Amino acid sequence: MPLGGGNKCGRCSKTVYFAEEVLCDGRSFHRSCFLCMVCGKNLDSTTVAVHMDEVYCKACYGKKYGPKGYGYGQGAGTLSMDKGESLGIKPEEPGPHRPTTNPNPSKLAQKFGGSDKCPRCGKSVYAAEKVMGAGSAWHKSGCFTCATCGKSLESTTLADKEGEIYCKGNHFEMIW
Question: DSSP for 50-63?
């Protein structure tokens, strides 16, 4: 550190004291001097880009030193709406609108704020009370039970037949 009390600022060449010092690329700057050379925006360690001892914001650096040529830095405003008809390309005719069926109603229910319906009671099943079994969402208490004996089930210890759930003992009795 020089005798004047601090390093010299990379922008204004005046003394930079510790409390106002910003270090970049081995040089010291006053916080108020650590600005983009082009647009004057305040910089920090995440927004600075250095080129030949000059500091820039990343946007100005990209414009000044980034790739040049067709398609670079132009933005969406310069995109062409040409459909290629001059090259003999025929645009596709839109087909009739067909509504899609969602194979996973749970995803649709989550997206639009609804919920799955319990196959046993028909009421909504919310995340806090939900347990999955036989491809459906069930209420953990009261509904997730064997259809024959009423025993509480676990998702790993159940057997299902035609959308209904059973304990393994009753399921095997039904098969035989």
Answer: EETTEEEEHHHHHH
